[in-house]
Specification:
By secondary structure, the protein is mostly helical. Helices cover 57% and strands 3% of the residues.
Amino acid sequence: MADDDYVSTAYQNSSFLSQFRGQAKLSTKQYFLLWCRYDVQRNGYLTRKELEMFLAELLMVTGDIHFSRDELDQMTEGVLTQFDNNNSDCLEMWELTEIIPVEENLLFKFRTQTAITGPQFTSTWRKYDPFRAGLMEACDIHDFMLDIIGTVCDMQQITRSKLTELTRNVVEILDLRVGSKVRMADMAFLLNVDSTFMNCIKNGDRLSRSEFGEFFDHYDADMNGFIEGNELMLLMGDLMSRFGIEVNATTLADTLGNVLDSCDVDGDGKINKEELALLFSHIDPESYIWEMSAKE
């Protein structure tokens, strides 16, 4: 048997996968739901540990509860050997579809075939997020998709029907209703925005107004209202370490360049509170940034 606590956790969670039993293919919405359950950090790939939990729960659902730790390790290694096409020792979203069949969907095809950089995404997003709150009205999705496609694709390849389908896919996956708002991180995740940028804008926790203020003040060592110079380098290094990105001179410079291109609105090479808020789409709508912008 595998370790008792490991089996117990898998057994308790296996009911989630049981809802998909008997389906020849998952809908895109179901697949995203499944993916987000195991991609805990929402970084677009399953680490070996996350993949192990998925496989353990899958074994439970199929009725095989008598597996050993070694057998699970071998199964994980076998899956990575067969499906980890870029030898990254993890499983990306499109690679898992070779194990879990998914219905054809234009959005899924779009996100796997289209490269969107952080600056491209953010410059388009700003048009629909005037308060810099990390939120966009659901009714703006159609126009947003039109603009982002025009930025990264040949518009002649996208018909009106395809644009309508892409918009519908986003609305269905995010389960949006009239009056709903879309979070920046959710849209960036759906569109598979450049991973370096994504690693910087996503934080696993929601930040309250006071928590965000404390976070900013921690890096604003001279308390002048800006994170700049060595303060900014420290922030970038900490964010990269938080998300498992190797910190060296090259990656630090690249990440800093991405962040400044994406969030330094006035181009002064410094980050103020409003600009930093663009990195954290999980800030509460009633946070300091939202309240300040709404009053202006």
